[in-house]
What does this fold into?
Amino acid sequence: MLEIAVFNIQSALLAATAGAHRLELCENPYDGGTTPSYGTLKTVREKISIPVFPIIRPRGGDFLYNDAEYEVICKDVQLCKELGFDGVVIGLLHADGSIDKEWTKKLVDLAYPMEVTFHRAFDRAAHPLQALEDIIACGCNRILTSGQVPNAWDGRELIKQLVEKADDRIIIMPGSGVRSSNIKALADFTGAKELHSSARELTPSGMQFQTTSMQENLQNTIVDTTEIKKMLAAL
It folds into this structure.
């Protein structure tokens, strides 16, 4: 199973056409991904038939949320359920680096029958093996992790340990820095059955006129369909 993270409608359409098995739908790549707009959600749901899991993250930064932010998260989960999505992606921590089990469990219950992925907030957890058990207890279906380092290949030892400890109770899905050059080796080493990649590249603006005095870089983040096909071939 290859999941592709996409950050706009164009990338979503391209990734689906290239053969991705599932999409994680986000906006704002430089914030690490935030909740897509209603327009993006509705358009993707209308145009794409493969499973799509929107990320539910109201802002960039840490994963410690206040009551008002949690209210936003709940409403966005409910919206995704009403729009007919297959799953959502969440992640909530306490200030001490432990999993916010109470709010996570409530979100899993709210999301049902959608699947729930606990995202790379896991990689900021103080005690990963305890966090694994807590997330399982909350009823999540999978954990997206790079092994608590920026690149999943460098975190492969912990990822392998998590796969073994999970013992089929939850899916451990490596992500971050996953490319066609390492995806097969990462899957073989860790035993992971699902893998995650953004396969991203930058594309230049199509604007013929640009105001040079604004000193802007108007490149856009988009998926590399050739890289997606190479990863699928490697698997």
